[in-house]
């Protein structure tokens, strides 16, 4: 099987030598998505707009590779500040229905100004 890369005009351009979404067979991996707008500026207004934009970018990348939130089996979320966990979870619930995918939450230093990042793996038709 060959690796196929996917992107979408609504996604911000990649900030390095990677693809927004990659599919091999029915497995899809979505690169980390932050709260970047199409022009690579961060969504203004703090945590909530960045989290929402990151999830919208994630959903766009999923659709570009032929899947949806229902196909997601695992999600990794990265928070710049662990105190934002509850606020992020409230928004997260809007994007993933029960039973939710497996998830890892990491509190780590992110790029300057970035408060949140999310990546996912999916199985098409999962």
From TrEMBL:
<protein>
    <submittedName>
        <fullName>2-iminobutanoate/2-iminopropanoate deaminase</fullName>
    </submittedName>
</protein>
<dbReference type="GO" id="GO:0005829">
    <property type="term" value="C:cytosol"/>
</dbReference>
<dbReference type="Pfam" id="PF01042">
    <property type="entry name" value="Ribonuc_L-PSP"/>
</dbReference>
<dbReference type="InterPro" id="IPR035959">
    <property type="entry name" value="RutC-like_sf"/>
</dbReference>
<dbReference type="InterPro" id="IPR006175">
    <property type="entry name" value="YjgF/YER057c/UK114"/>
</dbReference>
<dbReference type="GO" id="GO:0019239">
    <property type="term" value="F:deaminase activity"/>
</dbReference>
């Amino acid at each position: 099987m060959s690796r196929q890369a996917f992107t979408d005009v609504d996604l911000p351009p990649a900030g390095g030598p990677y693809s927004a979404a990659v599919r091999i067979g029915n497995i899809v991996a979505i690169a980390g998505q932050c709260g970047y707008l199409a022009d690579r500026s961060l969504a203004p207004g703090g945590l909530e707009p960045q989290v929402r934009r990151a999830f919208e970018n994630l959903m766009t990348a999923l659709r570009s590779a032929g899947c949806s939130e229902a196909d997601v089996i695992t999600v990794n979320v990265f928070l710049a500040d662990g105190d934002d966990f509850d606020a992020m979870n409230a928004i997260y619930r809007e994007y993933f229905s029960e039973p939710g995918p497996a998830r890892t939450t990491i509190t780590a230093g992110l790029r300057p100004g970035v408060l949140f990042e999310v990546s996912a793996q999916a199985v098409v038709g999962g």
